[in-house]
Amino acid sequence: MTDTSKRRWLKLSSLSAVAAAAALAGCGKKEEPPAPVAAAPAPASAPAPKPEPLKIAFAYVGPVGDGGWTFAHDNGRKAVEKEFGDKVVTSFVEKVPEAADAERVFRDMVGQGNKLIFGTTFGYMEPMLKVAADSKDVKFEHATGYKQADNMRTYDSRTYEGAYLAGVIAGGMTKSNTLGVVGSIPIPEVIRNINSFTLGAQSVNPKVKTKVVWVNTWYDTAKETEAAQSLINQGADVLFQNTDSSAVLQTAGKNKKYAFGWDSDMTAYAPEAHLASAVINWAPYYIKAVKEALDGSWKGGGHTWWGVKEGAIDIVSISDKVSAELKEKVEKAKAGLKDGSFAIWKGPIVGQDGKPVVKADETADDKFLSGINFYVKGVEGKIPSGK
């Protein structure tokens, strides 16, 4: 091969190599930086589980429809439902005897998961105390009692304030100066109410005397009717009661006499005989107790006693038959109870025997009031020893 041929061959080889390199470059792909990977969405957090509602049970000594004591408690239960909505679930058992059967009912309430239990009559005290000792994770509330435990407390209403206000009206309305009271169980609570009713009547009419017939039960319409008729036969023209039905008021109406509603507004049962109703509003206390159970501030072992001042006691539906003067006296006494300027049990107060039970210018304290076992002057008869 000549030098000229060599040079021509080398030149062609170089050109071919350049062309091949260009062709390879044209066929290649430019590398791009990797696209950012989107972060996987965080899993949505599950909603917090809704707290289980507080289960609350009420034991009633009478029927819900008694129109008086039990009816008032059940109104308080309904007020709790309205106040707390789905935070609570309430239930009740009515006509629970004040006997060994009450213990069975309380144990059944515990077994059903109730964590707050209300026993609404004095005779439940011992059965509830026994069940409370075996059920430390349950809160117990006992109405009108005096024994407590770490997980059991007591509450009451100053019903004697309503009794006094009714007495003011009775003292001004009687023509015979003889008042009649149908008593239930001879315990301090009831004796205190009879005495306070009499003191209220004496505040406007010192001549009045009070006769009492005991029926030894809270609710028995036949016995209450019989007792009321007996009092009317003895000359009473205005009747009062510490029993739970409307039988006393209805008996007064049939005999064209006067009477009062007790624990609840009983106007509708005998409007022609009804002078007023001394009522209990349990709602303020029940709402307070449930709120404490829900927020963890509930404490056992104490006692609460509320009256006119706290909105637990009132006198309502005063009849048009009652004079404006008497109504004014009632309102004045009620206002004094509310602001603390008036005390019902302020001396001098004397007993049946004429001896002072509260000295002049002294005011009975709650310890004294809780243990009253005597009649004041003006109340006739003797106090029975018990059931």
Topology:
Blueprint: H1 3-27, E1 54-59, H2 69-84, E2 88-93, H3 100-111, E3 116-119, H4 125-134, E4 139-143, E5 152-157, H5 159-173, E6 178-183, H6 188-202, E7 209-214, H7 221-233, E8 238-241, H8 247-254, E9 258-263, E10 274-280, H9 283-295, E11 303-306, E12 313-316, H10 324-339, E13 349-350, E14 356-358, H11 366-370
Parallel strand pairs: 1-2, 1-3, 3-4, 4-5, 5-11, 6-7, 6-8, 8-9, 9-10
Antiparallel strand pairs: 10-12, 13-14
What does this entry show, briefly?
This protein is an alpha/beta fold and about 375 residues long. Helices cover about 40% and strands about 20% of the residues.
Any descriptors?
six-stranded parallel β-sheet, Rossmann fold, 2 domains, 387 residues, alpha/beta, 38% helix
Distance from N terminus to C terminus (CA atoms, Å) equals 148 Å
How many individual domains? 2
User: According to CATH, what is the topology of the largest domain?
Assistant: Rossmann fold
CATH class of the largest domain: Alpha Beta
Descriptive overview:
- The chain is an alpha/beta fold and 387 residues long.
- The chain folds into 2 domains: 54-157 and 283-309, Response regulator (Rossmann fold), CATH 3.40.50; 159-280 and 311-370, Rossmann fold (3-Layer(aba) Sandwich), CATH 3.40.50.
- 38% of the residues lie in helices and 18% in strands.
- It contains 11 helices and 14 strands.
- It has helices spanning 3-27, 69-84, 100-111, 125-134, 159-173, 188-202, 221-233, 247-254, 283-295, 324-339, 366-370; strands at residues 54-59, 88-93, 116-119, 139-143, 152-157, 178-183, 209-214, 238-241, 258-263, 274-280, 303-306, 313-316, 349-350, 356-358.
- The protein has a 6-stranded parallel β-sheet, sandwiched between helices.
- Strand 8, helix 8 (247-254) and strand 9 (258-263) form a beta-alpha-beta unit.
- The longest helix has 25 residues, at 3-27.
- The protein starts with a helix and ends in a 17-residue tail after the last helix.
- Mean pLDDT is 91; it is low at 1-32.
